[in-house]
Design goal:
By secondary structure, the protein is mainly beta. The protein is built from 1 helix and 15 strands; from the N terminus they run H-E-E-E-E-E-E-E-E-E-E-E-E-E-E-E. It has a 5-stranded mixed β-sheet with strand order 2-9-8-4-6, with no helix packed on it. Strands 1-3-7-5 form a 4-stranded antiparallel β-sheet, with no helix packed on it. Strands 10-11-15-13 form a 4-stranded antiparallel β-sheet, with no helix packed on it.
C-alpha cells in the first residue's frame, strides 16, 4: 500500500522541473523601439541649395536584420522624403535627406517616422526664396553711358528647383534693361546691363 502511494510523487517531480524550465525560457526579450526623430537645421529657405537632414534614433542597437523605419511628409508641395530609411544591424540611428521646394510664404511641414507601431514627428519651417537687394554700379551715370545692375537673393537656388528668374520693372524713360534676370543654381547674385540715353534732366532709376 505504501509503494503505490509513492508513485505520483516520483512522476510529479520531473514534470514540475520541465514546466518550470519552459516558463523560464518563455520570458519575453526587450525589443528595440523608435526613440526620436530630429531635423537639422529645422528652418530652411525653400528651393535653396541648403541640405536638410533627418535622423531617426532607436532605443538600442538594431537587430541582425536591421530596422526599417517608414517616413512621410504632411505636405509634398513643401518637403519630400524617401518612403523609408533602414537602421543597419548594430546601429542605433540612421539619417535621410529631406528635399524642400519653393514657397510663396513661410510654411511649416511635419515629417513623420514610424516603426513597430511607434511614431515620432518633427517640424520643418520653410521660408520663401526672395530678393534682398538691388544695386547699381556706378549708382550715378551720365546719360548715354552704361551701368551694371546686381540682384541678390537670400539664398542660392538648389539643383532640384533650378535657377530663379527675377522680374525687373520701373525706371524712367531713357533707361533700358532686361525684363528679367536669371539667378543661376548655386549663386545668390545675378548681374545685368543697364543702358542709358542722353537726358536733359538728371533722373534716378528705381
Amino acid at each position: 500500500m505504501n509503494r503505490l502511494s509513492q508513485l505520483p510523487i516520483l512522476f510529479a517531480l520531473p514534470v514540475a522541473i520541465l514546466i518550470f524550465a519552459r516558463v523560464a525560457n518563455a520570458t519575453p526579450q526587450t525589443s528595440t523601439a523608435l526613440q526620436s526623430l530630429t531635423i537639422s537645421p529645422p528652418i530652411v529657405i525653400g528651393g535653396s541649395n541648403s541640405t536638410i537632414t533627418g535622423t531617426v534614433e532607436l532605443t538600442g542597437p538594431a537587430p541582425a536584420i536591421g530596422v526599417r523605419v517608414t517616413l512621410s511628409s504632411s505636405d509634398l508641395k513643401i518637403a519630400r522624403v524617401y518612403p523609408s530609411v533602414r537602421v543597419a544591424p548594430g546601429k542605433t540611428s540612421a539619417s535621410f535627406a529631406i528635399y524642400h521646394l519653393r514657397v510663396a510664404s513661410t510654411q511649416t511641414v511635419t515629417i513623420k517616422a514610424t516603426t513597430g507601431g511607434i511614431s515620432e514627428s518633427a517640424s520643418l519651417t520653410v521660408d520663401p526664396l526672395e530678393v534682398t537687394s538691388l544695386s547699381f554700379s556706378p549708382s550715378n551715370v551720365t546719360g548715354g553711358t552704361s551701368a551694371s545692375g546686381v540682384v541678390t537673393l537670400n539664398a542660392a537656388p538648389g539643383l532640384r528647383n533650378g535657377p530663379v528668374a527675377v522680374k525687373l520693372t520701373g525706371g524712367p524713360v531713357g533707361i533700358r534693361y532686361p525684363t528679367a534676370v536669371e539667378v543661376a543654381i548655386g549663386s545668390e547674385t545675378a548681374r545685368f546691363a543697364v543702358e542709358t540715353t542722353p537726358l536733359y534732366n538728371s533722373e534716378n532709376a528705381t
